[in-house]
Amino acid sequence: MPKQVDHRARREAIARALWTVVDAQGWARATMREVAREAGVSLGQVQHYFASRAEMLAFAMEFASEHTSERVSRGLAALDPPPHPRDVLRVVLTEFLPLGPDARATSRLNAAYVLEALHDPELHGRVSLGLRDGRALVERLIREAMDQGWIAPDRDPVVETDLVLALTGFAPLIELDVVSADAALAAIDRHLDRLFAPTH
Amino acid sequence: MPKQVDHRARREAIARALWTVVDAQGWARATMREVAREAGVSLGQVQHYFASRAEMLAFAMEFASEHTSERVSRGLAALDPPPHPRDVLRVVLTEFLPLGPDARATSRLNAAYVLEALHDPELHGRVSLGLRDGRALVERLIREAMDQGWIAPDRDPVVETDLVLALTGFAPLIELDVVSADAALAAIDRHLDRLFAPTH
């Protein structure tokens, strides 16, 4: 294996191990030592690839984001063409909820990442940038749907974007058995039905 | 001071110190040693009151919940009588967002608590119960408002309750500068205006 590829593959293996540890035991117990054990490498190797626990988390989060993008792409490819903008938005939104094992692991990693970012300015900047990109994508989808007449012209695209993003608040509610996955999906569908109602 | 009162007061002082440490440095750095330092007591004293870090967190969370209830009560008392159910719901909801220093500290504590609860069955049960109580309160408010004709009779109170609860998803979005506090409040107001629209 070329050295560059090898380096990348090893970092990914460690990121995947971190993902597994965070999903099963939580970020609090995800020490570099525990991740090394899970990945089957030495602590020194983990420290060779990541200077700090925060850096390891940041890389795992990037890795998880790529996985999320792939799940979104697969979800979009499964829609009947041409995809209705309502269904596109639903695929994007629901992939951020802990509804499957992969999405659940990512959601838990994300919660740990957000919490860590509150007190780490560099991480805060990175998380914030990533989320603002996500917000811009949703706003673009909503504006396009308005242009195409799927959403009533008197809706405010900024407000509608923020309300759709806030629905990611179902993630902890599902994890803590406050709202079932089915109830969360029903509520999301109701919200999207109302948004995509050109006559209102 | 009677012994019981003294015990309670000391636990509260330690919980308040934990609150300060979590707000400023994050849960990851809130060791019992750091909390003892902040509270100006010995590590042994902290360990005397709390058997574990998780128990200390659970107590701090109870303490924070009482504070939140007090803020909600003050917010409700400030409404013009008789309070409109829409405004009652708005007070309850916005007190869970990191809009003031007190609410921000509670919100951060809460995020740490939720993350910890994912991997601690006892804590999971406790957090879940508390949140389901909160959900029941919101559903009761919504059902009463429907009975009084403030909300259209064809709305599903379960779905509407879940959608209102999901708006707590603005908390991390505000913390990470994805949505401003003003934009979040504007979106919440829009959502509540649509909910409290008897003709729709």
Automatic annotation (TrEMBL), chains A, B:
Alphabetized Gene3D superfamilies for the sequence: Tetracycline Repressor, domain 2
DNA-binding region range list: 31-50
Molecular functions (GO terms): DNA-binding transcription factor activity; transcription cis-regulatory region binding
Domain HTH tetR-type: 8-68
Keywords attached to this entry: DNA-binding, Repressor, Transcription, Transcription regulation
Coiled-coil region(s): none
Listed Pfam families: TetR_C_6, TetR_N
UniProt name for this protein: TetR family transcriptional regulator
